[in-house]
Write a structure and sequence with these properties.
423 residues; Rossmann fold; 3 domains; eight-stranded mixed β-sheet; three-stranded antiparallel β-sheet; 17 strands; 19% strand
Length: 423
């Protein structure tokens, strides 16, 4: 236990005076609560409500929960709330048909991820850029999630100005959509591909990228290859699933891999996620069914997400924060129904790194619950054959073998008894 942490257990039956004091100070209206306090800031967690939440399977739309898991999540959120002076503000850009934090639809809305961000002690707001005003100063992270319309030149200039003020930006751009951000990203050492990444196990495609449906396994690209970075360290062995992503790659000569002190004035770009070796970058959007064309398309693995950092925090410049950016070639991976596998953790870790939180990259451990196993299309067929066909057939075969073996033994025993009688 940390030396600065003090734990008191109050028995409301025997410590009546202490109970009355706490009820008046923290405005408690029910028994069995956990009070998390630091100075004048406090949070009251009702334990019975957490038990009901766990019994009901956790928050709506989440993937399994127990009392310990619910308690861990709520306690982390409460500790952040009482130990941080003010919660950071995460803005989601609007005005270009982006993913909406108030949209509850399964494969388009971002209401689920917005709720997760709030649970992690951060405010979530929408932001519509104005030509006469800069990006607000209280913006801790600006998220550009899947715009379906091109950003105007003056809007791109607002983003450029925001980064010049040590801004933190998360950009998720779908394949086949105009962005107006290509040149802007190249300034930061990032190349945005005019392509779509496909896997050899992809069975079919939908006509429009905004109509893509991960539920049907259409255009899914499974990711198990991650770069070495605090964002992706907890993802080792986990599968993220993108839907018709585009390539997002570091430009040559961006300074990645060099000594940080030598590159403080240059953006450093690192790959976060790559597609599998059997994938390829398809440049012909009209080809259906798509297929790899030698000399025209590009074989995998292909980079699908990168992070950018410029500036190095030092003792001389502790008040100057580094510029940080995460660029992902897909926005549907964080939609409400798509937060399976490592998708949620990928988004949360990226956001924590942008917020410069020390806990970024820490995966919860020891939690028990229901989780979704992500398997590639070909793997699903193999799994189906193994579980539904092979295993029952093996059991039937084993039963037949045992029955025949027992029959042979009975026959041999009977013949032996007959031979003994004749003698």
């Amino acid at each position: 236990m940390h030396s600065a942490l003090q734990v008191d257990i109050v028995d409301q039956g025997s410590e009546i005076a202490r109970t009355r004091e706490l009820v008046g100070r923290y405005k408690i209206r029910e028994s069995s609560v956990l009070i998390v306090a630091c100075g004048p800031r406090y949070r009251v967690l009702p334990l019975r409500a957490l038990e009901r939440t766990a019994a009901d399977g956790g928050h709506q739309g989440r993937h399994g929960s127990t009392f310990s898991a619910s308690m861990d999540s709520e306690l982390r959120s409460a500790l952040r709330a009482v130990t941080v002076e003010a919660a950071p503000v995460v803005y989601f850009l609007t005005g270009h048909d982006e993913r909406d934090i108030a949209d509850f639809t399964e494969y388009r809305g971002y209401s689920e991820i917005a709720g997760i961000v709030r649970e992690r002690h951060a405010e979530v707001r929408s932001l519509l850029l104005e030509s006469q005003l800069p990006v607000t100063n209280d913006c801790s992270v600006l998220v550009v999630a899947g715009p379906a319309r091109r950003l105007a030149a003056w809007e791109v200039a607002k983003l450029r100005d925001y980064l010049s003020r040590s801004g933190h930006l998360m950009v998720m751009l779908d394949s086949g959509q105009p962005t107006g951000l290509e040149s802007f990203l190249e300034e930061w050492g990032v190349r945005l591909g005019q392509d779509r990444i496909l896997d050899s196990t992809t069975t079919s495609l939908l006509p429009g990228s905004r109509d893509r449906s991960a539920a049907l396994g259409l255009g899914e690209v499974s990711v198990i290859r991650y770069g070495k970075h605090p964002i992706t360290e907890p993802l080792d062995g986990l599968v993220s699933t993108f839907v018709l992503p585009r390539s997002v790659e570091p430009l040559a000569g961006n300074g990645a891999g060099r000594h940080l002190n030598d590159q403080a004035d240059k953006p450093r770009v690192a790959t976060l996620a790559e597609s599998a070796e059997k994938s390829w970058a398809e440049v012909d959007f009209n080809q259906n069914p798509p297929q790899f064309n030698e000399g025209y398309d590009r074989r995998g693995p292909v980079s699908l997400a990168v992070c950018v950092e410029k500036g190095v925090a030092s003792e001389l410049t502790m008040d100057i924060k580094p510029v940080r950016m995460v660029v992902v070639g897909d926005s549907q991976f964080a939609a409400n129904r798509c937060l399976t596998g490592a998708n949620e953790l990928f988004f949360v870790n990226s956001l924590d790194w942008l917020l410069e939180r020390n806990e970024a990259g820490v995966a919860p451990s020891g939690e028990v619950g229901l989780y979704t196993l992500q398997i590639e299309t070909r793997g699903r067929v193999v799994t189906f054959l193994l579980i539904v066909v092979a295993m029952p057939c093996a059991l039937v075969g084993l039963a037949f073998f045992v029955a025949m073996a027992r029959r042979d033994r009975r026959v041999q025993s009977a013949l032996g008894r007959k031979g003994t009688t004749k003698v």
